């Protein structure tokens, strides 16, 4: 029987699915950011306030199986 494919619909599910795939494959992802600014809303209303998050540097994500 074919395996069912589920589409991710939110950020926590996406992060969890990514982590699962990384640990299965012992992979590493590295993101380099140079003066990146992201406007993050405080809520989901019509006109939420926003905060500016600034990124400059690297983030590495490593996966390993603990079995």
Could you provide a short overview of the structure?
Helix content is 22%, strand content 40%.
Tell me about the largest β-sheet: 2 strands, antiparallel
Strand content: 35-45%
Structural class: alpha+beta
Mean pLDDT: 80
Query: What does the overall shape look like?
Result: flat
Low-confidence stretches: none
What does this protein structure show overall?
This protein has 1 helix and 2 strands. The chain is α+β, with helices and mostly antiparallel strands and 67 residues long. Strands 1-2 form a two-stranded antiparallel ribbon. The longest helix is centred in the N-terminal third of the chain and has 15 residues, at 11-25. The two termini are 28 Å apart.
Name some characteristics of this structure.
1 helix, alpha+beta, 67 residues, two-stranded antiparallel ribbon
Compile the SSE list and pairings.
Layout: H1 11-25, E1 28-41, E2 50-62
Antiparallel strand pairs: 1-2
